[in-house]
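Hey L., structure's done. Input below.
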Amino acid sequence: MASDTSLLGAAGEHFIMCELLRRGYIAALAPQGVPNTDIVVTDLTGARLCTIQVKSRREVGSDGGWHMGPKHETLVGDRLFYCFVDFGKSPEAWPSVHVVPSAVVAEVLRTSHASWLSTPGKSGRQRKDSNVRRLVPDYSNVYRPNPTPYPKGWLDRYLGAWNLLGLAQNDPIATGD
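Output:
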């Protein structure tokens, strides 16, 4: 029997596929077990290609973020993007999607996790490293008492930023201009 997490992940992948196809791109799910890629995307001529990793969530929990792992701190590719899908609180809510380059995700996760490790935990104890990373829309708590380079709203510029995929004919990323 499929878990709620697997169903949510599959829903996110299919939602992103739908959005890409609606925009006139060719998109296909990567074969099961392919590392680091959920969807392969190209323009209609096959001249421009990118890969996407999809992370899905429902609007539960307090930080509004997505689960990530240590590998995402170093997973960088010029044509690798993440689509962070938030399905909201109910099936009636329209999902939101943040399209973020892998280099940005890696940098945010790496620096925020290092900051978290360097600050004392409860009772002033040194934090222990773990395999958990979170991509969140506000890292203020992680960097406290210092200012955060990723305050509330830092992720907003990536909301619906499909142009970052560089697949549109008139997109300067795609044409190399």
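The beta strands are 26-29, 39-42, 49-57, 66-68, 80-86, 96-101, 133-135. Residues 14 and 136 are 23 Å apart (CA to CA).

-- N.
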